[in-house]
Amino acid sequence: MTKQRPPNQWQPGQTGNPNGRPPGQSQITRLRASLAADVPDILAGLVLAAKGGDVQAARLILERVLPPVKAIEQAVRLELPDGDTLTAKARAVLSAAASGDIPPGQAAQLIAALGSLAKLTEVDDLAARITTLEAKHGNT
Questions:
Q1: Residue 42 structural domain
Q2: Is 111 exposed, middle or buried (0-12, 13-18, 19+ CB in 10 A)?
Q3: Could you tell me which residues come within 8 angstroms of residue 114 by beta carbon, excluding any fewer than 6 positions away?
Q4: Most buried pick, 76, 86, 99, 129, via CB within 10 A?
Q5: What is the pLDDT along the chain (140 residues), one digit of tens a residue?
Q6: Spatial contact of 67 and 37, defined as CB atoms under 8 Å apart
Q7: For the chain, how many structural domains are there in total?
Q8: pTM check: above 0.70
Q9: Does some domain include residue 22?
């Protein structure tokens, strides 16, 4: 059975705007193509300007050529309260970040890990409760 199209829907290959942009290159694509031959000269001029002390030119080159330097994170030993709730452990992580013992990025990752652990613990608890209820009511 073929699907019927509503009477006001466009048919395949039809356009809703016959006077719209003609198929082919966009203005941006044409502009890029027209500048392609000048790019080496533009880059050479930019490099000369940067070497001559133009800070903006140097910044532009360096931002495009060198990747940003990321801080190297090192493992830090952090004692979390044993047997306490996950909330208490998260508070300990926040306290360590606030006192400068661990970087904020690591604290955020640890708290996200604690949140994932909370979800996993919840699933385990629910599974155990369901198993207990099924055993109690004879449903296996």
A1: 27-65
A2: middle
A3: 86, 89, 90, 93
A4: 86
A5: 567 767 777 777 676 777 776 677 788 888 888 888 898 999 999 999 999 999 999 999 988 888 777 767 677 788 888 888 888 999 999 999 999 888 888 899 999 999 999 999 999 999 999 999 999 988 76
A6: no
A7: 2
A8: no
A9: no
